Fold this sequence. Notes:
The structure holds 2 protein chains of 2 kinds.
Chain A: E1 3-12, E2 15-25, E3 30-34, H1 41-49, E4 56-61, E5 64-65, H2 71-74, E6 76-79, H3 91-100, H4 110-123, H5 139-152, E7 157-161, H6 169-186, E8 189-194, H7 197-203, E9 206-211, E10 214-219, H8 221-226, H9 231-236, E11 241-248, E12 251-254, E13 257-260, E14 267-272, E15 277-280, E16 288-298, E17 301-308, E18 314-319, H10 320-326, E19 333-338, E20 342-345
Helix pairs in contact in A: 3-4, 3-5, 4-5
Chain B: E1 8-12, E2 19-26, H1 28-41, E3 47-56, H2 58-69, E4 73-75, H3 82-87, H4 105-139, H5 146-156, H6 161-185, H7 192-230, H8 233-239, H9 244-281, H10 286-296, H11 299-325, H12 331-363
Parallel strand pairs in B: 2-3, 3-4
Antiparallel strand pairs in B: 1-2
Keywords (chain B): Hydrolase, Membrane, Metalloprotease, Protease, Transmembrane, Transmembrane helix
GO molecular function, one term (chain B): metallopeptidase activity
Protein name (chain B): Glycoprotein endopeptidase metalloprotease
Amino acid sequence: xSIEVRQINKRFGDFVALDDINLDIxxxxxxxxxxxxxxGKTTLLRIIAGLETPDRGSILFHGEDATDTHVRxxxxxxxxQHYALFRHMTVFENVAFGLRVRPKHTRPxxxxxxxxxxxxxxxxxxxxxADRYPAQLSGGQRQRIALARALAVEPRVLLxxxxxxxxxxxxxxxxxxxxxRLHDEMHITSVFVTHDQEEALEVADRVVVMNKGRIEQTxxxxxxxxxxxxxFVYQFLGDVNLFHSRVxxxxxxxxxxxxxxxxxxxKAVIYVRPHEIDIQRIATDKALAGVITHVRLLxxxxxxxxxVAAGDPVEVELTRERYTEGRWSVGEAVxxxxxxxxxxxx
Amino acid sequence: MTIDRPAGLDIDxxxxxxxxxxxxxxxxxxxxxxxxxxxxxxxxxxxxxxxxVDYCDGTGAALLFDLIQRGGQVQGLPExxxxxxxxxxxxxxLTVPRRPTPPRLIARVGLFAAEVGREAHAAISxxxxxxxxxxxxxxxxxxxxxxxxxxxxxxxxxxxxxxVALIAFLLGVILAxxxxxPMRQFGAELFVANLVGLSLVRELAPLMTAVLLAGRxxxxxxxxxxxxxxxQEIDALVTMGLDPMRFxxxxxxxxxxxxxxxxxxxxxxxxxxxxxxxLIGFGIPMATSASQIMDFVDMSxxxxxxxxxxVFGLGIAGIGCMRGLQTGSGARAVGASATSADVRAIxxxxxxxxxxxxxxxxxxx
Lengths: 346, 365
């Protein structure tokens, strides 16, 4: 089912949570709402679910206005960050709950419910936990049960609010791959909220980057990463080094390297990712002189912090091999030259 | 090993701005003495030479921090003490947040009125929703969750029997004793049974039961529902198409409204029994006490007492559930809800009891 979000506005007191949001979500797609905390992504999700009402604007489900439709009739499955499992019920009862409480004429028979719950528990690979209570489960297991519970009512839309936010990194990675596979099998229109750019880029078909109640960019993971529409998107999707420069005849400069500048303005801000900087010991006039002040090992990569004469320290990322080859050490004078950069009017 | 010198401060006032030299042990014992002098001598841009410092603890770091904040430049602090100072982030201006001025009287009255208005609005919409849910269930009695209702009735009613019995018994005993002593002066011990019986039935048993209930059950409802709210279980229910009013609130209201009159009746009997026991000590047999009470306290007294306790029960359960549903976020919010449910329920009891007293007086019941 497709969802259309039309000019949604929401305020909490003086705080503008959502400012004129427009968004189309296609049938069967997995969409990520990505942004820093407080950017309004959860509020948007809750408005789509019907848990919150917008001040203005409308939500269309399959082309029909659902703004005033009660949550009950929207048929959404919602997965919460902190699972929200019913503590006094077993795993089986939790998953069966949504079916058990249906009015008599739409309620499946007990046998059908049992069958369905077991199918779902198999789907989330936790069939053997049916008789346990939520408190006896690990975080990852709980979240999978919560997902099974949300799927039990055969929702038309699946909404996930930071589903992996409370889990540790390893479980999180495992679960997001699993979620992707699950989505490929079921093809249910899904929207999930996250503040983790890696998660959004890895799992989603499309990513919506939000900031301060507005949508900064919408696109496939490749699009938002390779062609960030705004400096915010560029910064949010990875580490960056920032250089300020004057614009001369349409060129901005870092060290001596020139980059084409946008038309407007005579000042530019240049963003360079740490892994897009070359480091060498030989001085050239196209490079930026500096001194290595810190070396940080981050597993497969190494981060060097280089103090340069003008501006903030620059971070340079090298692979482990390049680092060992170069034998870089703290205190050494080096020259930096950016290979790639993005230039925005400053 | 070198013996540490006590802290010293040399001020070179020939330089402009003055140059300060700190030396020796900068610790809690010695810093206090030189602090005011250092402060007085320091001018904007003064250089503070700390290279002769042998020892520096938290107090010393605080002194350096203070001097830096006042515009001094600390130089030559030995490497081993640098982290201690760095921890304090001396370069960041220390901003002491100004205490918000309390609003003026008129503003306070306005804020209070707005708060009362919000509360009233919330209470009215809660009562409205609960009534609507109640009527929906009356039309289709199958919609009431019977299992949940019985569970709540057990915990709010049956489980409360021991404590209600204890309080009611003591209440009867105390009332009988306190009134029997002066009554004996007039030879009227016999009428103590009438007095205790009537006050228990009309006033004290409903009120004491309700107070116990407010502490035991009202707060528990607020905590139960509040925890569900904080854990987003209520949101989960709503997305599954369940109305928390019908699903959580109504069973509690029904259970409490049904069990409280029964509890009250039980309290009345136990209280009278306690009073009768005391009266045996004054030479009045139990049978006599019983017949006195039966002659004097009539059906309308019982019914008004039970009606009152029914209303009290509904009020307590309603306040508990409402507070639970209004719980904010965070674990502390649950505690706040439970406390406020308890306090409000007791205030409600006293006010309602007063209103009942006036109403019954004019109705001549």
